[in-house]
Specification:
Order of helices and strands: H
Structural class: mainly alpha
Largest sheet: none
Mean pLDDT: 97
Shape: rod-shaped
Number of helices: 1
Number of strands: 0
Distance between the termini: 82 Å
Helix content: over 70%
Low-confidence stretches: none
Strand content: under 5%
């Protein structure tokens, strides 16, 4: 039956889309964590060299 087949295909597409969105969300979370770590490291390095320049 055409309607049943179409419905099944649509359900499969929705499930695939959900999986892709979940993966994208995980990657976005990892990117956010990396950006936060980079920001902290950059601030620490900036402070280190600021003090180094003051001592010269």
């Amino acid at each position: 039956d055409f309607t049943k087949d179409t419905f099944q295909v649509n359900v499969e597409k929705v499930l695939e889309r959900d999986q892709k969105l979940s993966q994208l969300d995980d990657r976005a979370d990892a990117l956010q964590e990396g950006a936060s770590q980079f920001e902290k490291s950059a601030a620490t390095l900036k402070r280190k060299y600021w003090w180094k320049n003051i001592k010269m």
